[in-house]
Design a protein that fits this description.
The chain has helices spanning 3-57, 64-89, 94-111, 113-128, 168-172, 199-212, 247-264, and strands at 136-139, 142-149, 153-157, 163-167, 176-178, 184-193, 223-229, 234-243. It is of the alpha+beta class. A hairpin with a 4-residue loop joins strand 7 and strand 8.
């Protein structure tokens, strides 16, 4: 390599270095400022969400479901303004930003129709209110207690405390069974007694167990009726009304109490039996 080639290479390297220095000088502070704005915006969005949630919680009549939803909206609004501020840091005009956001929003809306449908579903869930935070529901193939209704998703907790995050569209697009909607629920039992047992005695024994449990409601009144003559038992249907919160406790306790009471009364609870005839060959 001759001296001329060496000089050209040095000049090229020098030009590249000068260009890098110029770019760092021109945009370095803008990049640092943009990163700072992003960090501050992220922190402020979290603070704003918590402040809104805390402020609305002071109003006892304001539903907790709406608190979570509005808190999420405030968070995303702050993040949107943060993005606009970051773009403005690089000298982009506000009008251009709004136009760009409109175009980008249209493109994203077409590309993410499913995601945006979750937002629309969340709004519909807030308007029609099929459930609220704290209700136990069965929707979208999952059952659990509602913990939060967010902008895109609904959070559930199963009875064994497993966390489930469901898209709002999946809930709104199907049926919702709300077990906590009403203050009372009916607990159903099916008790079988032998054909030789005294039906009136069995009904009286079952009613005494129900009456002794303070969780059973007098209005609506309970029902104890003979409902079916089965293959191996006389079936007695028992219907007891309780508060929704007492449902499973009453279900488990009365099932055990019925068995103990019928045993004490000497009333047989049969189980399926089969008679087999053995045919001997000639």
């Amino acid at each position: 390599m001759d001296n001329m080639d060496m000089e050209q290479m040095q000049e090229t390297i020098q030009a590249v270095i000068e260009e890098v220095v110029t770019m760092v000088t021109s945009y370095g502070l803008d990049v640092i400022g943009a990163i700072g704005i992003l960090i501050i915006g992220w922190i402020v969005s979290g603070w704003a969400r918590g402040a809104v949630n805390k402020g609305l919680s002071k109003f006892e009549r304001f539903d907790s479901t709406l608190r979570g939803f509005f808190s999420s909206i405030v968070k995303y609004l702050v993040l949107t303004f943060t993005l606009v501020a970051v773009l403005g840091q690089f000298g982009i005009q506000t009008a251009s930003i709004i136009a760009a956001l409109g175009a980008v929003g249209l493109a994203i809306g077409l590309a993410l129709q499913g995601t945006l449908s979750n937002v629309a579903a969340g709004v519909m869930l807030l308007i029609f209110r099929p459930f609220k935070v704290g209700d136990y529901i069965d929707a979208g193939g999952h059952a659990g207690t509602v913990k939060a209704l967010n902008l895109f998703t609904t959070d559930l907790a199963t009875p064994d405390n497993v966390h489930i995050v469901m898209p709002n569209g999946q809930i709104w697009g199907g049926s919702v069974t709300n077990y906590s909607y009403h203050n009372t629920r009916r607990v159903d039992f099916l008790v079988g007694i032998g054909y030789g047992a005294n039906m009136d005695q069995a009904i009286s024994a079952i009613e005494s167990v129900i009456t002794a449990d303070s969780r059973s409601l007098k209005d609506p009144a309970h029902q104890v009726v003979v409902s079916n003559l089965g293959d191996s038992s006389v079936d007695i249907t028992v219907r007891v009304w309780v508060r929704s919160s007492d449902y499973w406790g009453v279900k488990f306790d009365l099932t055990k109490a019925f068995k103990e009471k019928l045993d004490a009364e000497g009333i047989d609870i049969p189980f399926p039996q089969r008679v087999v005839h053995m045919v001997q060959p000639d």
